[in-house]
Amino acid sequence: MTNGLNHKLKRAVRILAPVMILLVMILHGVSSAAILNPPRPPELSGTIPLPSITLGLGQADSPRDVALTLQVLALMTVLSLVPAILLMVTSFTRIIIVVGFVQRAIGLQQSPPQQVIAGLSLFLTMFTMYPTWTQVYENGLNPYLSGNINASQAWERSIEPVRNFMFRYTRQEELSLIISMAGAERPANQSEVPTRILIPAFMLSEMKTAFQMGVVIYIPFLVVDMVVSSVLLAMGMMMLPPMMISLPFKLLLFVMADGWNLVVMSVLKSFTNVP
Hints:
By secondary structure, the chain is mainly alpha-helical. It is built from eleven helices and no strands. The relative contact order is 0.09.
């Protein structure tokens, strides 16, 4: 009986073995095809155009096209230098230095934040430079946009009000220093002073004026620090930091004296062309 059972098992194995081998081969082929060729998502019913961006050099039809391209590149370069121009030819330098002196004189490190100081200085700059920018627009930019003058004439008319503003607040000492360092001849009048010499002289003058105003701002707060230090020393509290005690008194003094209004009024009055 055992021999009959073994014979039946061997016969079943002989019949099922080819079927199992064929099934394994089919499954292997399906999995390989799925790996090599994954199923694609169903396509949308409507075709959506996709944009493409190309950069290259082409042949210009006329020299005017080349000049226009160079003007666009020059304009992009000038736009990237706008922050530096803002610092060099406007009242921004003086204003932000003076406001920074106020913050340090009181002893505050993060109040007001630097973003607030920069924003206040920027809007005060816009306020003080408004007459100059108005002249730039009326004399140079507006006629150029209207097509009445060319680019070189627009530049000469636009830079003239800015040069007048810088000459008004440039000290003679700084201007003579920059002229001597540049090795240029002594100019007979303002029109002979190059703009490349006027800008650094103007910046030096602005920083000198701002530091003089900062020293005046520092004096009352320095007196408060000295008084508090003397009182603490007389009381024998040498281990107590004077700044910890003097800071509330300096803030109280600044608030009672309406300090921000005084600082802003002093800065604006230092520019005589404020409307």
